[in-house]
Amino acid sequence: MKGVSMDNIESTENIIEVKNVCMDFYMQSEKIDNMKEFFIRLLKGKIERQKKRILDNISFNVKKGESIGLIGHNGAGKSTLLKLITGIMRPTEGSIEVNGLVAPLLNLGAGFDFEATAKENIYLNGAILGYSKRELAKKYDEIVEFSELQDYMNVPIKNFSSGMVARLGFAIAIDVDPDILLVDEILSVGDENFREKCAKRISELRNRGVTFVIVSHNMAQVKSLCQKALWIEDSKMMAYGDAGEICDKYLEYCKNIKH
Amino acid sequence: MNHIFSSLATEQRKQKIKFFFEKQKKELMKNKNIVLQLVKRNIKVQYRNSAIGILWTVLNPLLNMLVMYLVFSAFFGKDDPTYSLYLLCGNIVFNMMRAATTQSLTSLVNNRGLLTKNKIAYSVFPLSCNLSAIVNFAFSFIALIAVMVVVALAYNITVFSVNMFMTFVMIPALFLFSFGLSLFFSGLYVFFRDIMHFYNVFLTLWMYLTPIFYTTDSLPSYMVPIISLNPMYHYVQYFRAIIYGCAYGTMSFPSGMETLTLYLIGIITTVTGTIFFNFTKHRFIFNI
Q1: Residue to substitute from A30, A35, A119, interface B, most B β-carbons within 10 A
Q2: Number of residue pairs across A and B with CB atoms under 8 Å?
Q3: Looking at the DSSP assignment, which residues form a beta bridge with residue A70?
Q4: Looking at chain A from residue 140 to 199, which residues have their Cβ under 8 Å from any Cβ of chain B?
Q5: Chain B within 8 Å of A130 (Cβ-Cβ)?
Q6: Which residue has the higher pLDDT, B158 or B170?
Q7: Beta-bridge partner residues of A156
């Protein structure tokens, strides 16, 4: 009896709780990034700051092991929401509670130092993802093998092709053992073979009970990968629920806009 | 019944506190690893494409000193056999602060790729710049010892003494001072990119206001109290005293008060820098 109730608790546990989250950006009509400009404008009384609401009253819960697709037009606030969940930004209002290790997969290779070699970058990025040195030494071979870049480990990344950079980035990020994986439009890197490998690895992680939050413009992908979808439009939450249903609604909405 | 609930609640609270501390510990370990990797990178990148690599960190201060020695020995300290040491000591102490702060200044903006895509404590970047400056200082110290050997042999004088080990007391204080400055300036640079130019000019002025190639007794007497308002003056003089000054007999061993002054300057700067950094860090992401 006890075992059953424990199982129940686990399967209904919210791993991400987003409550009434609002996010404001201050947009300067002209961006001031130097003192000269700042003081001249201060004297003239001309510092205008426009508040823009990027996210407006977003609330949703994600249960452990679920996969959520974030959909909506460009600039709707999807990536900002991912950054809030990662903790890179703090919400202006509301609260976000995340119970577990988050691995962000935002924009592959963004964290690379292009002057450094692939090997050095693996160690730096591994440290950022929270590995200890010993863990990383173990994982290093795995990462190299997955990226299929064995011969290029001592080459500075600036000499890599963009596809190679993306492969290395994916290999590092995917080798984490996270509770939550945040993925921002990156599932289309590399050639056909590599993509297949990534898809396999992702389904492996899903079977292991990793929670996914995926930003994608590919509705077929969202339908096949996610159980639920969150549709954000113009910084507001339009709908949250079954992925198939929401995707169809979204496609319908897009059609109507066009006509 | 109530009793059971309350004990359950305290148990939960205990669990939460335990979880919190484990998280903090993990976070600390993670930051330690990041800093370690960044320091390694900083040092490697410096001389990556040079033929003699890391040897430059030793040669650089040595050559610098040689130039200064050739230029200034004609004007100052001509008959002082320790003038080369005087120069080198001043130079490597000032350079540690200079390298740490100029690298830190742009460190946040230069690493924006890492900062905007991952959750990292911002302070690891200025911290790693300061730590690599200490590593470079250690290499310069080798150059210093080489010059000390040459001076000791050439003039047959005593420059070595156990006082040298006081360096381990002085360096943490200097680190605190330059780390505090680094926190302040790296944060400010996110908002105002033109402070880099100001800072470079300011550093030149600061160098001339620090007795690196001139001695304080060659100054007009009214300048001495003004010069002593400069924190770097205290660090530079302290270092000279412990390296060769008290062994050679030109300077006295620094008093406890002097050591305390160094630490007070360091601590005040770090606290101020940290307050500024923490106060502004939530807005970095929007301006970086």
Answers
A1: A35
A2: 76
A3: A215, A230
A4: none
A5: yes
A6: B170
A7: A117
Candidates B164, B154, B162, B163; CA nearest to B81 is B154
The CA distance from A239 to A253, in Å, is 12
**Chain A partners within 8 Å of B41 (Cβ):** 113, 116, 120, 124
What's the whole-number average pLDDT of chain A? 81
What amino acid occupies position A67? S
Query: Band of the pLDDT at A9, cuts 50, 70, 90?
Result: very low
Alpha-carbon dihedral A139, A205, A55, A42, rounded to 10 degrees: 10
- Where does chain A have alpha helices with state H? 2-11, 35-44, 78-86, 118-128, 133-147, 162-174, 192-207, 219-225, 243-258
Q: Output b/e per residue, A69-86; b: 16+ Cβ within 10 A.
A: bbbbeeebbbbbbbbbbb
B287 CB within 8 Å of a chain A CB: yes
Is the predicted ipTM greater than 0.90, yes or no?
A: no
Backbone angles phi, psi at A28, to 5 degrees: -85, 135
Report how far residue B201's alpha carbon sits from residue B208's, in angstroms, rounded to the nearest whole number.
11
What 3-state class would DSSP assign to B238?
helix
Length of chain A (residues):
259
DSSP B166-201: GHHHHHHHHHHHHHHHHHHHHHHHHH-TTHHHHHHH
pLDDT tens, position by position, B212-224 = 988 888 888 888 8
pLDDT at A6: 41
Task: Give the three-class secondary structure for B117.
Answer: helix
Q: In this structure, what token pair is assigned to residue B99?
A: 């390298």
Average confidence (pLDDT) over A103-111: 71
Of B80, B105, B124, B74, give the one whose Cα is nearest residue B193.
B105
Over the stretch B175-233, which tens digit does the pLDDT of each residue have?
A: 999 999 999 999 999 988 889 999 999 999 999 999 998 888 888 888 888 888 999 99
Domain extents in chain B:
51-287
Distance (Å) of CA B263 to CA A73, B103, B233, B252, B256: 56, 23, 14, 19, 11
- Across the strands, what pairs with A182? A104, A213
d(CA A126, CA B34): 9
Q: Where are the domains of chain A?
A: 2-101+178-258, 109-177
CATH code for residues A2-101+178-258:
3.40.50.300
Of A102, A148, A149, A143, which Cα lies nearest the Cα of A123? A143
Bridge partners (DSSP) of residue A60 are: A18
Which has the higher per-residue pLDDT, A259 or B18? B18
**Long-range Cβ contacts of A119-123 (<8 Å, 24+ apart):** A119/A153, A119/A154, A120/B37, A120/B40, A120/B41, A120/B44, A121/A157, A121/A168, A121/A172, A122/A168, A122/A172, A123/B37
What local confidence, expressed as pLDDT, does residue A7 receive?
A: 42
pLDDT at A88: 86
